[in-house]
Amino acid sequence: MGRLLRRARVTRGRVTLRVAVCPRPPATARWPYQSRGEEAGMATETRGRMLEAAVLALQRRGVAGMSFTEILRDSGAARGAIYHHFPGGKAQLVAEAATRNGQDIRVQLATLPTSSPYAVAEAFLDFSRPVVEAATTGSGCAVAAVTVDPDPASDMLRQVAAIAFDSWIEQLAERLTTAGLSAGEAGDLAATLITLLEGAHVLRRASGTLEPFEQTARTALALTRSRYPSA
Predict the structure, then answer these.
(1) Cα–Cα distance measured from residue 157 to residue 70, given in angstroms and rounded to the nearest whole number
(2) How far apart are the first and last CA of the chain?
(3) Residue 38 has pLDDT above 80, yes or no
(4) SS3 state at 154
(5) Is the pLDDT of residue 217 over 80?
(6) Residue 61 C-alpha from the chain's centroid
(7) CA 114, CA 24: separation in Å to the nearest integer?
(8) Which residue, among 209, 221, 131, has the nearest Cα to 168 in the 3D structure?
(9) How far apart are alpha carbons 14 and 118 in whole angstroms?
(10) What does each C-alpha distance from 97 to 26, 55, 134 come to in angstroms?
(11) CA distances from 151 to 77, 147, 154, 198, 217 (A)
(12) DSSP for residue 23
């Protein structure tokens, strides 16, 4: 039952009391009603958790191995949330997760010190080392994972990865330029360091040891110091 609302009405000098029913809010609503802004905030939070879970799934199992069950479990989202937030299904979820991971890494690269090209390279390798080390436990690069999708119709995902890698090289080159290199030199060294990072993931998984990364890192630092001694 709703609430009773009494209203007085005056008709030719007589007062008539009318009783109306004020309906209750729907059972699914909270009182007071939830604002659209609150609903949008909750939806954004759920979507964000799902993307975080998708990034982890890509790192652990790649595109082929990740499942909706895993995403829902790790994000705490309800069933049906996948197609509610990602109407394009798995392809959209994977693309947005890889894009998000790419953006997060670019933000971290923007914090590298720029006192010298050597300092930039050294800081980048220090940042990369724990990421590469995790490769033996099944973790990997979420962006690289979308480039090995067995689906022949995955050109869109490879484009997502290409954009992410280009953004890393661009950001790293900006750090190196600030450190004193020319645009051409910075671009070349940045591309070399990103290639080192991605290649090290494969070598780490194959060998089970971090030594291939350490060997390449030592060589990269030595070349940086010898080639740009005054920068």
Answers:
(1) 20
(2) 80
(3) no
(4) coil
(5) yes
(6) 16
(7) 63
(8) 131
(9) 95
(10) 36, 5, 19
(11) 27, 10, 6, 21, 34
(12) P
Judged by DSSP in three states, 20 sits in strand
Q: What does the alpha-carbon distance between residue 209 and residue 193 come to, in Å, rounded to a whole number?
A: 19
Distance CA 11, CA 17 (A): 11
Helix H or strand E segment including 19: strand 14-22
Closest to 121 (Cα-Cα) out of 131, 130, 132, 109: 109
> Residue for token digits 């993931």?
201
* Angle formed at CA 95 by CA 175 and CA 50, multiple of 5 degrees: 100
- Helix (H) / strand (E) element for 10: namely strand 3-11
> Sign of torsion, CA 152 155 156 160?
positive
Query: 3-class DSSP state for residue 86?
Result: coil
Any idea which residue has 């110091």 for tokens? 225
Average pLDDT over residues 140-168: 83
Token pair belonging to 63: 């595109």
Residue 32 above 50 pLDDT? no
What pLDDT, on a 0 to 100 scale, did the predictor assign at position 27? Answer: 39
